[in-house]
Specification:
- It contains 16 helices and 16 strands.
- The protein is α+β, with helices and mostly antiparallel strands and about 425 residues long.
- It folds into 2 domains: about 260 residues, Bira Bifunctional Protein, Domain 2 (BirA Bifunctional Protein, domain 2), CATH 3.30.930; about 90 residues, 3-Layer(aba) Sandwich (Rossmann fold).
- It has an 8-stranded mixed beta sheet with strand order 1-5-6-11-10-9-7-8.
- The structure holds histidyl-adenosine monophosphate (HAM).
- Histidyl-adenosine monophosphate binds next to strand 6, strand 10, strand 11 and helix 12.
Length: about 425
């Protein structure tokens, strides 16, 4: 019986290539390593929260009316009768943990990052999966607009560190509970005047969630809402000042951005600054966002904590990997040293040397199946080894062996006890 992976869920393997190149784990390792480095420089610390949460957490945080919760959530009743859901995103879980640990009072300023799978039962298509990974950050406890600027700088630096080019940052302000209701009334009235030109979904949205209409990709709706009132032009004074400082800060830090009045985000918790990073190279459809985020100053309170400002974003790892695979292909394996052996004494020496080399920090491999030396060296080649050495009775007795540089074929004789240092120096 052959069983396949679930539709819309992919394996990430070192052997993935061709159409599956975005799921090559060597590309993922690059993203993770580059990301880790930048995040630690900004003082962000790793968190893991459960993949399963109570379904009502997402209904509350993300919003009942959103597609993510209303249409796409994998929710089921647990044996005890509780309704659980596979997390469709991780901001809700992070806030739940932050509140549950009493951090708003104890130690409110937290900078967290995560890397993990999210689940949305969307229609599978290019750049859209039912299990996908996010590399995300959440910063709690700082209301100052300078924190928004820091977060934008971090997003920019992450994109650069992983090696993406041609990514555009789009920003907007969605206001807060003081000015948003007024704006929504203006928007509702505007949409109402054009009701006949909107799709059925958007007609329903007029009452329930008019912002969503600005995000609709139906050509008729795009056309009908072309000159819709912009949220950033209907901000109250505090939101206006906050947004002005964010934009001025971004300019001062030389973070290029485009002001995008149509950017509304697909989750309900956002207040004030909202942003996305899009890559034209992903096409022209809806799935061009490699990063989405913003401020969510009301969410900690909504989930039972005291009023606490917060801001964050998440990047789609598959989409970043797709862009990297298209630009640079799949990276080859790369070892520093490959130890081949001709006989049992050679094997013993090889294993000892391998341990020593690894202790020194060298990526060292062997083929412990043994067999013909030429076959072992063939594997050394396929594993991208910089150097290889063959060990046998003779070499062990002489205490010397020939170190071969794989690319040139050039061989140098070295003492076995100096071999590791020699490779380290020349790697
Ligand atoms: P989001 O915009 O829903 O935001 O997702 C962030 C990113 O995840 C998207 O820009 C995209 O790259 C990727 N993504 C989303 N859905 C899929 C999918 N079906 N397949 C592949 N990639 C996908 C959030 O999730 C927020 N929690 C971000 C955030 C953190 N806001 C504040 N803090």
């Amino acid at each position: 019986m052959k069983i396949s992976a679930v539709k819309g869920m992919k394996d990430v393997l070192p052997t993935a290539q061709g159409e599956d190149a975005p799921f090559n784990s060597r590309i993922w390792e690059r993203i993770l390593n580059a990301g880790r480095e930048v995040l630690s420089r900004y003082g962000f610390e790793l968190i893991h929260t459960p993949v399963l949460e109570e379904s009502r957490l997402f209904a509350r945080a993300v919003g009942e009316e959103t597609d993510i919760v209303g249409k796409e959530m994998y929710a089921f009743e647990d044996r005890g009768g509780k309704v659980l859901a596979l997390r469709p995103e991780n901001t809700a879980g992070a806030v739940r943990a932050y509140v549950e640990q009493g951090l708003p009072m104890r130690d409110p300023v937290q900078r967290w990052w995560y890397f993990g799978p999210m689940f949305r039962r969307e229609r599978p298509q290019r750049h859209r999966y039912r299990q996908f990974f996010q590399l995300g950050v959440e910063s709690f406890g700082v209301a100052a607009p300078e924190e928004d600027v820091e977060i934008l700088a971090l997003a920019r630096d992450l994109i650069e560190a992983v090696g993406l080019v041609g990514v555009e940052l789009r920003v907007n302000s969605l206001g807060d509970e003081a000015c948003r209701p007024g704006y929504l009334e203006v928007l509702r009235a505007y949409l109402e005047e054009r009701r006949d030109r909107l799709c059925a979904d958007c007609q329903r949205r007029i009452d329930r969630n008019p912002l969503r209409a600005l995000d609709c990709k139906e050509p008729g709706c795009v056309e009908a809402t072309r000159d819709a009132p912009a949220s950033h032009e209907h901000l109250c004074d505090p939101c206006r000042q906050h947004f002005d400082r964010v934009l001025a800060g971004a300019a001062a830090m030389e973070i290029p951005y485009v002001l995008d009045a149509r950017l509304v985000r697909g989750l309900d918790y956002y207040t004030r600054t909202a942003f996305e990073m899009t890559a034209q190279a992903l096409g022209t459809g809806q799935q061009t966002a490699v990063c989405g985020g913003g401020r969510y100053d009301g969410l900690v309170k909504l989930l039972g904590g005291p009023p606490t400002p917060a801001i964050g974003f998440a990047m789609g790892v598959e989409r970043i990997a797709t862009l990297l695979a298209e630009a640079g292909g799949v990276p080859a394996a790369s070892a520093d040293l490959f130890l081949a052996f001709a006989d049992p004494r050679g094997l013993e020496a090889a294993q000892r040397l391998a341990r020593q080399a690894r202790g020194r920090g060298l990526r060292t491999e062997m083929d412990l199946r043994g067999g013909k030396v030429s076959k072992q060296l063939g594997r050394a080649d396929r594993r991208g080894a910089r150097f290889a050495v063959v060990l046998g009775e003779l070499e062990v007795q002489a205490g010397r062996a020939r170190l071969k540089e794989m690319a040139t074929g050039q061989e140098t004789e070295v003492a076995l006890d100096a071999l590791v240092e020699e490779v380290w120096k020349r790697r």
